């Protein structure tokens, strides 16, 4: 019995990777017209049955889930990944974690890896909603679920907290504790998924409570610990009076706490601080951080349930908005 030619045979004879052959068969981008013609010529020469093989590949399950996420520079991702890996293990799936770098610059490279590994589904965590990235991700025709982001105009299910409402709640908590002069240490305003909505929630909470919005008390450097240090130092240089800070993530808040300590400022006696996320850093820092809690671990678990549902069923998978709450610890004083 003569064996039918395989996709590996095509790749070898064409002197290209299996991933490139797969992309050509699925009419995706990432190769030259010359390469496409060469591969198609080999397919015809060796009698590779494109439709049969493509169907078999689609039906074959590797029980593998790919995870695309930015550089793991905050505790936020660690908690989500723990939820993903635990839920995947329970359900008999393995996980490939791909760090696509800042702004998703290595996304295309890792999509090729996903195709080559024949992953059953892809979980995308916090990547920016840029059209080029979106089309690269959904263009591979592999089931996709999003965490902590959304792609407007595309029918891709997501799981996230309402960042606008959550930041509003955090700021309102400070206001209810008597604070009227409130600063914000935020992420980038260009970040439409977390940076801008948290800024808008902050501003609206002040407006609704008829409090002054001072631009000098709003800093935007990013979501890392170092960004928190930078933002806090810039804030203190202005020498404007404030009694409380809303930090757009826990790592920013911990950076602010470290600067306050070096400057001899006591938290919460001199300055109150509320964070956002409720990562382990919030519990481990001193004083322990009051924060707006996202159910990060549960979001990771839920994303696996959603992607398995997409893999195994033709039914529509609905997006999920997760609940949030204030976790009170030791960094907010009632004045």
UniProtKB/TrEMBL annotation:
<dbReference type="InterPro" id="IPR028082">
    <property type="entry name" value="Peripla_BP_I"/>
</dbReference>
<dbReference type="Pfam" id="PF00532">
    <property type="entry name" value="Peripla_BP_1"/>
</dbReference>
<dbReference type="InterPro" id="IPR000843">
    <property type="entry name" value="HTH_LacI"/>
</dbReference>
<keyword id="KW-0805">Transcription regulation</keyword>
<keyword id="KW-0238">DNA-binding</keyword>
<dbReference type="GO" id="GO:0000976">
    <property type="term" value="F:transcription cis-regulatory region binding"/>
</dbReference>
<keyword id="KW-0804">Transcription</keyword>
<feature type="domain" description="HTH lacI-type">
    <location>
        <begin position="5"/>
        <end position="59"/>
    </location>
</feature>
<dbReference type="InterPro" id="IPR010982">
    <property type="entry name" value="Lambda_DNA-bd_dom_sf"/>
</dbReference>
<dbReference type="GO" id="GO:0003700">
    <property type="term" value="F:DNA-binding transcription factor activity"/>
</dbReference>
<dbReference type="InterPro" id="IPR001761">
    <property type="entry name" value="Peripla_BP/Lac1_sug-bd_dom"/>
</dbReference>
<dbReference type="Pfam" id="PF00356">
    <property type="entry name" value="LacI"/>
</dbReference>
<protein>
    <submittedName>
        <fullName>Transcriptional regulator</fullName>
    </submittedName>
</protein>
């Amino acid at each position: 019995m003569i064996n039918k030619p395989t996709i590996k045979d095509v790749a070898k004879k064409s002197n290209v990777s299996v991933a490139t052959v797969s992309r050509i068969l699925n009419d995706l981008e990432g190769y030259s017209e010359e390469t496409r013609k060469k591969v198609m010529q080999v397919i015809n020469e060796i009698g590779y049955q494109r439709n049969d093989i493509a169907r078999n590949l689609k039906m074959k399950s590797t029980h593998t889930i790919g995870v695309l996420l930015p550089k793991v520079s905050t505790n936020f991702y660690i908690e989500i990944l723990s939820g993903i890996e635990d839920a995947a293990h329970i359900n008999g799936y393995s996980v490939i974690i791909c760090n696509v770098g800042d702004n998703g610059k290595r996304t295309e490279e890792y999509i090729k890896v996903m195709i080559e590994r024949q992953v059953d589904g892809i979980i995308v965590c916090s990547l920016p909603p840029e059209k080029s990235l979106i089309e690269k991700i959904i263009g591979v025709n592999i089931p996709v679920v999003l965490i902590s982001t959304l792609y407007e105009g595309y029918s891709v299910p997501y799981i996230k907290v309402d960042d606008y409402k959550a930041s509003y709640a955090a700021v309102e908590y400070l206001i209810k504790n008597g604070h009227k002069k409130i600063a914000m240490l935020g992420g980038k305003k260009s970040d439409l998924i977390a940076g801008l909505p948290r800024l808008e929630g902050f501003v609206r909470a002040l407006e609704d409570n008829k409090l002054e919005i001072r631009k000098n008390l709003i800093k935007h450097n990013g979501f890392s610990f170092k960004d928190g240090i930078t933002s806090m130092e810039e804030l203190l240089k202005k020498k404007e009076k404030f009694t409380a800070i809303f930090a757009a993530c826990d790592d920013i808040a911990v950076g602010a706490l470290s600067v306050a300590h070096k400057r001899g400022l006591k938290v919460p006696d001199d300055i109150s601080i509320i964070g956002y996320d409720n990562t382990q850093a919030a519990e481990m820092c001193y004083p322990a951080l009051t924060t707006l809690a996202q159910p990060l671990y549960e979001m990771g678990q839920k994303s696996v349930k959603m992607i398995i549902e997409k893999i195994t069923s033709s039914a529509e998978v609905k997006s999920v908005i997760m609940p949030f709450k204030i976790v009170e610890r030791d960094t907010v004083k009632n004045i």
